Amino acid sequence: MAHDSAHDSTASAATSEAAGARAPAAAPAPARPARITVPWVRSRKVADGADPLVMVTAYDAPGARIADDAGVDMILVGDSLAMVVLGYDDTLSVTVEEMAHHTAAVARARPAALVVGDLPWMSYHVSVEETVRNAAQLIRAGAQCVKLEGGSKRLTMIEALIDAEIPVMGHLGLTPQSMHAMGGFRVQAKESEAALALVADAKALAHAGCFAIVLEGVPDEVARMVTDAVDVPTIGIGAGPRCDGQVLVYHDLLGLEDRTPAKFVRRYADLKQASVAAVGEFVADVRGGAFPDHSESYHLDSAQAEALSLYGAAPD
Ligand code: KIV
């Protein structure tokens, strides 16, 4: 796996101290664990000298292995599952059972990265009991924490989850589960009053015990205000560079999607095109008789082939 003590700033600080170098003025950051933990993520503020956190979504074991081998810090089994894997137009249709099914697939890859299970719409809105049971379903499937959308109005549920020892990642700004209330997927907090309300929400989430906060679809300047206002890391998506980390959806960054990407998506590959070309070659090879060839087939030994030939069934 990509995580090892070579990235461990505590280990290198200890080594240079032992060699007689001057001790660093600031307290050393906690060592990067072999498997990423919630307390480690919670400690990663860029203002304190941490490298930005990296999170990517994944929905199955191969995706989790790719993300983990690339060295991400966190794998989010996002409710974007609904759109990028299950073919829905929005995230509202996905259920806790479907989220748990895909969380389990990701967890079976045993990634070093922290596995974050996304609570889908209506799984944390009805009652505290339902919220805790639904979150427990994701934890039992293999998530180490859950993410939920919304600000101060979610505090009761967040406190109940934390009370049940379930770490919570917040999600503010453009919260796709509120698409009808927001009138579509729109950049949020563009006016000063809304920006201040967002900062207040972020402070309330951090105060309630959220260990990190996703900021989605907000102006760069507002993301910076939030990042400066809370002592837990902010993880941006469409929130500019001044967050404590960034997250992208797996299918967006690999170009596996037909959908026109949002402005904030950077495509690092065009796997849709590469995949269509590869499958197209297979189609042509089968239709042209070029697949499978001799080396891709199993064969009888010559004695057996000879024996079968007595009955007129010899291979050609
Ligand atoms: O579901 C998801 O993929 C998300 C990210 C966009 C943060 O919530």
The count of helical stretches stands at 13
Which ligands, by name, code or SMILES, are bound? 3-methyl-2-oxobutanoic acid
- Overall pLDDT score: 91
Reported by name, the CATH topology of the largest domain is: TIM Barrel
CATH superfamily heading of the largest domain: Phosphoenolpyruvate-binding domains
What's the SSE blueprint?
Layout: H1 9-18, H2 38-42, E1 53-57, H3 61-69, E2 74-77, H4 81-84, H5 96-108, E3 114-118, H6 128-141, E4 145-147, H7 155-163, E5 168-173, H8 179-182, H9 192-208, E6 212-216, H10 220-229, E7 234-237, E8 245-248, H11 250-253, H12 271-287, H13 302-309
This protein binds 3-methyl-2-oxobutanoic acid.
Task: Please characterize this protein's 3D structure.
- The structure is a single chain.
- Helix 10 links the parallel strand 6 and strand 7 (234-237).
- The protein has 13 helices and 8 strands.
- Helix 5 packs parallel to helix 6.
- The model is unreliable at 1-23 (pLDDT under 50).
- It has helices spanning 9-18, 38-42, 61-69, 81-84, 96-108, 128-141, 155-163, 179-182, 192-208, 220-229, 250-253, 271-287, 302-309; strands spanning 53-57, 74-77, 114-118, 145-147, 168-173, 212-216, 234-237, 245-248.
- The protein folds into 3 domains: 1-32, no CATH class; 33-269, Phosphoenolpyruvate-binding domains (TIM Barrel, Alpha-Beta Barrel), CATH 3.20.20.60; 275-309, no CATH class.
- It is elongated, with a radius of gyration of 25 Å.
- The chain is α/β, with parallel strands linked by helices.
- It has an 8-stranded parallel β-barrel with strand order 1-2-3-4-5-6-7-8, surrounded by 6 helices.
- The chain is 39% helix and 11% strand.
- The protein starts with 8 loop residues before the first helix and ends in a 7-residue tail after the last helix.
- The chain binds 3-methyl-2-oxobutanoic acid.
- 3-methyl-2-oxobutanoic acid binds at residues 57, 76, 78-80, 118, 214, 216, 237, 247, 249.
